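User:
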Amino acid sequence: MFKSFCCTLPTLFVVSLIMIGCSDKSPTPTAEKGHEEAGHEDHAHEHATVGPHGGDIVELGSEEYHAEIVHEGEATVYILDSSAKAPVAIDAADVTINITHDGKAEQFKLVAKPAASDGAGKSSQFSLADKELIADLSEGHAEVQLVVTINGKQYRGTLEHDHEEGAEHAH
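Assistant: Predicted structure:
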């Protein structure tokens, strides 16, 4: 009996090592988890740089919302959700674009242009047909800040220009 127990014990040990090594659960690296929890910019999701209408994305708040700025024919701002994909209708009558270039500051109010799906008294789209605004947005050298109020809270977002020097803005 002692002999069979001695032979079985090493066999059980080897089998348990194999089972531990073949576990389906892989440990979560603590360094990556800590990096994520620390709030670093390496998010698990990708950030869109071009919106659903082909415009430039502006982050509002800590990614609570996004806005998309399109400037073809007229300047249009679309209010989007945290993923920058779906429209969000807000109860604002207008949004403001502040532009600074060549030492000159300008302010433009884009008025609500509700879509049929936005609901009564709300809009997810704001626009203004102003050649100077469109030129300022297209040149890519101006500082552009969007100001919008959503549910009583004011958000400010900056349009980041990733354009190469001398490159055309593609829409």
